[in-house]
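Quick illustration for those who missed Monday's session on complexes.
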Amino acid sequence: MHKILETLRDAQKALEVLLWPHPIQAEEIIADSSEATMVDLVVSGYEWLCLNCHEENSEIKATENVTCRKCGKGFETYLPQYTYE
Ligand SMILES: [Zn+2]
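Prediction with zinc ion bound:
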């Protein structure tokens, strides 16, 4: 009798996910000086989809490694991507 070997479902799945910045939450800022010409671009967080359970996760910072809040599986990340590019 041959033993039946269980295959690991996730063994061949990619271990990297993409980080997507949230849309910028623009706050109305009244400049102290009418001569000011520069503003801050603020990113409020990054979203990524778990390759294991498809949970949509979010991170405050862009990091090289993330862990799914639902299933606990960890992934490496690509550089952040922008939704509207
Ligand atoms: Zn997951």
